[in-house]
């Protein structure tokens, strides 16, 4: 943890314990992508690339009779988002206060989770990450805006995956607005979300950063998330009023089986 420079921060051991605990608790729910992909790691801060198991042609060898191949790798993406905590709030916590202001941490967690979910489900071209919806060969399954036909659309998506030889159970990943709509809707007087879960034989996942919805298999081995440094809190600097911190992680993501997922998209009546 030396690269996080935590020992230089004007934060007590008790204060660091609070920040770490609150960060873990807040990250538990919005990191939706991690609930539906294979997570490997963490492998540490110095871990820099994921092996792709293939090679690339190299330039001519400087010695005759000797050939060379270059191992193909996917570099890990290094992500950082900054936030600040009032120094007075940390001092009050050390005195026994229970209402510590961690609004900055809340906002940083939301940004980090949205970034990770977006990269996994929709890709991040600048970092060489191909997302699930970019990789799938299946055309999008349309749905109407008011969710009245949602169970039938989910059934269509599952049927397409089954015809492609992709067995379940399955999950549905949706953004906050769609998740709320599904949770509030009814199907013949019964909660729509229960009907959807029955079709999937799996969960409906709340994942900020997702556009529309994605149905994907939970059988394993199809979507690979590799963690170097898992999300951790580091110290940047401080002034008279605030301690400036950050959340940081490194990761890569690969789609091993593109046909194991399908996207749902809105359409008009």
TrEMBL record:
Mention any Pfam family matching this sequence.
Linocin_M18
Q: Please provide one cellular component term from the Gene Ontology annotations of this protein.
A: encapsulin nanocompartment
- Keyword set for this entry? Encapsulin nanocompartment
Q: What does the UniProt entry say about where the protein is found?
A: Encapsulin nanocompartment
Tell me if Zinc-finger is a UniProt keyword of this record: no
Principal location? other
Q: Which domain of life is it from?
A: Bacteria
NCBIfam families recorded? encap_f1 (NF041155)
Q: Which family does it belong to?
A: Belongs to the encapsulin family. Family 1 subfamily.
Q: What is the protein name for this chain?
A: Type 1 encapsulin shell protein
Q: Which organism is it from?
A: Cryobacterium tagatosivorans
Organism classification, top ranks?
Bacteria, Bacillati, Actinomycetota, Actinomycetes, Micrococcales
């Amino acid at each position: 943890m030396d690269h996080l420079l935590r020992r230089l921060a004007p934060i007590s051991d008790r204060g660091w314990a609070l920040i770490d605990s609150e960060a873990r608790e807040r990250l538990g729910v919005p990191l939706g992508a991690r609930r539906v992909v294979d997570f490997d790691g963490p492998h540490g801060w110095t871990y820099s690339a994921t092996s792709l198991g293939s090679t690339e042609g190299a330039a001519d060898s400087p010695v005759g009779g000797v050939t060379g191949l270059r191992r193909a790798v996917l570099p890990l993406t290094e992500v950082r988002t900054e936030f600040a905590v009032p120094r007075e709030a940390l001092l009050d916590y050390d005195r026994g206060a229970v209402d510590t202001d961690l609004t900055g941490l809340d906002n940083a967690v939301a940004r980090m989770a949205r970034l990770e979910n977006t990269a996994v489900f929709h890709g991040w071209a600048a970092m060489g990450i191909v997302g699930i919806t970019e990789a799938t060969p299946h055309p999008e399954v349309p749905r109407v805006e008011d969710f009245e036909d949602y169970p039938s659309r989910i059934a269509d998506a599952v049927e397409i995956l089954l015809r492609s030889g992709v067995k379940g159970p399955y999950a549905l990943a949706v953004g906050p607005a769609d998740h709320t709509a599904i949770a509030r809707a009814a199907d013949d007087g019964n909660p729509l979300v229960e009907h959807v879960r029955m079709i999937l034989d799996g969960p409906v996942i709340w994942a900020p950063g997702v556009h529309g919805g994605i149905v994907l298999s939970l059988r394993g081995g199809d979507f690979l998330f590799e963690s170097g440094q898992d999300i951790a809190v580091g110290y940047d600097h401080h002034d008279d009023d605030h301690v400036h911190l950050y959340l940081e992680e490194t990761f890569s993501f690969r789609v091993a089986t593109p046909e194991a997922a399908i996207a749902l998209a809105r359409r008009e009546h």
